[in-house]
Amino acid sequence: MTRRQRNRELHEEVEAHLHMAIQDRIDRGQSREDATFGALSEFGNRDLVKEVTRDMWGWGALERLWQDVRYGARMLRKNPGFTVVVVLTLALGIGANTAIYSVIQAVLSPIAIPQPDRVVMVWTENAKRNWRQFPSSVPDYQDWKASGVFSALGAVSDNGFNLRLGDRTDRINGLSVTPDFFAALAVPPHLGRLFEAEDGQPGHNQVAVLTDALWRSRFGASPSVIGSSIVLDGVPRTVVGVLPKSFPQIGQEEIYAPFIFDPATAANRGARYFQVVGRLRPGLAFVAAQQRMAQLEQRLSRQFTEDAGNSVAIQSVASAWVEDAQGLLVVLFGAVGFVLLIACANIANLLLARGTSRQREMALRVALGAGRWRLCRQLLTESVLLALLGGIVAVAPSLAAIRFITSFQLDFPNADAISLNSGVLVFNLILALATGLLFGLAPAWQAWKTNVNDAMKEASRSSTGASHHRLRGLFVVSEVALTLVLLVGAGLMLRSFAQVRYSSPGFDPRNVLTVRVALSDKQYATPQKQVAFFERVVREAQALPGVVGASAVDDLPASDNLHGTGIFPTDRPAPRPEEVKVVLRDSVMPGYFQAMRIPLLRGRYLDQTDSATSSKVAVIDEFTAHANWPGQDAVGKSFRPGRTQPPVQIVGVVGNVDQGILVKLLKGQVGQIYLPAAQMPAPAMAVILRAAGDPDGLAPAVRTLVRAVDIDQPVFDVRTLEAMREKSQAPQRLATSLLGSFALVAMLLAAIGIYGVIAYSVGQRTREFGIRISLGERPLGVLRLVVRQGLVLATAGILVGLAGAFAITRLLTKLLFGVKPTDPLTFVGVTALFAAVAVLASVLPALRATRVDPVIALRCE
Amino acid sequence: MAAKDRYQNRIELLQGTLDMLILKTLQWGPQHGYAVIHAIRAGSSDVLQVETGSLYPALHRLERQGWLASEWKQTESNQRAKFYRLTPAGRKQLVSETARWTQLSGAIASIMNPETSS
User: Fold this and answer.
1) pTM tops 0.90
2) How many domains does chain A contain in total?
3) Domain that holds residue A435
C-alpha cells in the first residue's frame, strides 16, 4: 500500500469516526449544528491525531529525512547569496579533487599482465659510478638467465624502424625483444603467435609482431594481416602476430622485432645497451630472488673488471610502471586535498557565523520539544545538501581540469584512459558527502550545545558566543597553516620552473626546425654512405629559400635519446672504471655551432676540413674543459672518447648547453663533447634548419628534399626546438601551473576566512569601539587593535604552516631542480606575501571599526 | 458539576494498559475505533475516557505488531468504517496481558488494603 493510499484511508477512518459521533448525538436529540460542534471538539485536533497515528507506521526515519531535506532546501533558497558562494567554493574544491583522482585512477590502474607482481625489471646499478636503473650487457644478461631465478628473462631495446607500405615509408617506434620477453609478460596474442625460440636465431628473425594501434591504423584491423609481408628498414618481414589492445606500452612503440645481439658486443661486458625483463620462477619469493641475484652479481663483480662495484636491482614492473608519474601525482593529490580542506574550514566558518544568528531559531525549536539529536541531524542534512549541490556543480570544473591536464600529453601510463568515468563520479559523490559531514560537524556541535535559557535572552554576547569565536579562530589558523604549505610548495615549483625555463639553454632555440632521419643499416651499411647521405641533405637544405643555416647532429640537446661515453685524457694514466668521468657525446656536421648559435670560447669550431682522413679532433664544452683541465687551456690537449678509442685532439671550447631536465635530475651537470660526423658517423641524425622567419613553414620543403634524395628514408619528429623544449618541460609546467592555481585559490579562501572572523568580531565589539572612541581613542588606535587580532591568527597559522611545509616539501624533491626543498628565499618570500594578505584582510573590517559612531553604537544596545 | 467531576475522575492510563483494554474490547468481535472508545467508557462507568489521539496510534501500532487485523465494512446504520479484529497472536497477547494484570492488580490491592487480603 502506498503512503498516499494509507493517508487517504486514515482520513476516511477519522471522518467515519466523526460521522458516527455526530449521528449518535443527533439520535440523542441534538440539532445537527450542536452535534457537529460537539463531536468535533470531543475528537480534538484532527491533524494532530493523524500525525501521531502516522508516526506508528514505522517509516518515520525516511519521512523525517525527507522533511529535513525539504526544510534544508528551503533554508538554502532563503539565503541565495550564501548558498551560491558555498556551492561554488565547494565545486572548485571537489572538482579539482575529482579531476586529479581521474588521472590517478587511470595511471594507477594495474598493468594488464597475468600475476604482475611476479614480473620484474632487472637493472644494473653502481653506487660509485652513480648508476641507477642502468642498462645491461649481453654477458651479464646471459649469466643472469642461467641463474635459475627466472622462468623467463628477456632483453628489450627500443628501436626505430622505417616501415614501407606501398609507396609510403614512415618512421615508427618499435622494440627489439628476445622471445623470452613475451614469455615473461605471458600475455597471449590477439591474433597469430608471438616470438618463439627459433625467431631469436640469426637468419630466422625476419618476423614482426604488431601492436593493436598499428594494426588498426595501417592494416585496417584486417585478420588477414597474419602471414603477410611488410618491409622494415628495406628488408621484408612476415607479420606473425597482433598484440591485444591492453598490452602494456613501454614507450611509443608500435611494432616488435626479434632482438639479435650484435656479435661485436656479445662478449663485451662493458657494452650495456638494453633493458632486462623477467618473470620469477614459480615458488621463488621476491626477497629470495633478490638475495640470489645479489650473490650472483657479487661473484661477477669480483670476477670481471667491467663489473667492478656493480650491483643488481630487481623492481616489480607494477612499480616501474607508475614510478615516473607517482611523484607528480602524490604532490597534486596532496595539494587538491589541502584546497578542499581549506574550503571546508571556510564553509564551516561561514556556517558557524550563520549559526550564531540562527541560535535563537535553534533555541526556540529546542524549547518547542525538538530533540538535540534531531537538530544536529537537521543541520547535517543542510550541510550534506550543500555539499551534494557542490558535487554536482563540480562536474563542470573537473571536466575542464581533466581536459587541461591531458592537453599536456604527458608520458603517463594509460594516459588515453583519463576521463570522467563512473568510478570517478562515485568518488566525487562520496567526497561530496564526506565534505558535507566534515564541515557540518562544527555547526551541529554548536547546536548540540545550545543552551535554551542563554540563547533566548536578549544578550547575544554570552559564553557560547565566545566559544564559537574561539572555534572560528581555530579554523582560520588551520586554514592559514594549510595555505602556507601550499604556497611554499607552489613557490618552490615556480622558482624551480623559472630556473629551467628562463635559464639560457646555451643555444638559440628560436626559429629552428628539426627533422630526424634514421637510415636503414641495410641500405646504408657503411659509415661513408651514411656521411654522404647527410652531407647531401645538409647541403641542399642550406640552399632552401628562407634557411639561414643548416647542419645535423645525432642527439639534439634535451631530447630523450642521448649517448654518453667515458673520457680518458691522454696526459695522465687511465682512471679506474668507477672513476671514469662520463660525458655526453654528439656527432655533428659542419656548421652545427653556427646554426645553433652556440658561442665559441677558445680555439675553433669543427668544419669541412675535419674529414674522415684528416687527424681526429673534437670540440668540448666549458664544463668538460674545466673538469678535466682546470686552470689550463684545454685546446691542444687530447683524450680518448672511450677506453679503447683512438685519441682525439681538442681544437675548440664552446659554451655549455642545457641538456634537459632529465639529465640534470639524474646526474646533475654533465659535460658534452662534439666529434665531427665525418670521423664518428651516426646512422640516425637530426637535421636542423635555422629559418629567417617562421620555421614551421620549412617542413614540407624538407620532406620533399629528403624524399628526393632517397624515397625509402622517411623524415620524422618534425618539430621546432622551442616546441621540443616545451614538451620536455611539460611535467614541470603542469605541476607549476596546477600547484600555483591551487595555492592562489587557497590564499583567497584563507583571506576570506580571516576577513570573516575579523569582520564578525568587529560587529560584536561595536559597542566597545563606540566607548573607546567616545573616550578619545584615535582611529589609528582602533585600527591597530583590530589588525593585531588578525595578525595573531595569521601568525599562529603561519608558524604551524612553516613547520608543516618544512616537513612536507621533501616530497617535492623529485620535481625540483636548482632549488632545495627548504629554500630560504621561498620560505621568507611566501611568509611575507601571506602576512601582507592577512594584514589586508584585517584592515578592511578594521576601517569599519574606526568609523563607528559612538552615539549610534551606544544607543543600539 | 457532573461534567467537571467526570473530568477529574479520569485516570491517566498507564502505558500498555490501553493496549490491553483494546485487545480485551475486541475479544467479543470486530469493532471500529468509535465503538472501542464507547465500549471502554461504558465498561468503566464513564471513568476511562480514551482520547482519539491515543486510540488511533494504539490501533495502528497493534496492527503493525500483528496483534490486530483490519478491514473496511458497513456498520448496522450503513456507515462504511474500518473494523479491527484480534489475530491469533493478539489473542495470545491478551491472555498473557490479562494474567500479568491480575497479578499486578492483586499485588497493588494487597498493599492498599492489607486487612481485607490477609
Assistant:
1) no
2) 4
3) 323-502+730-859
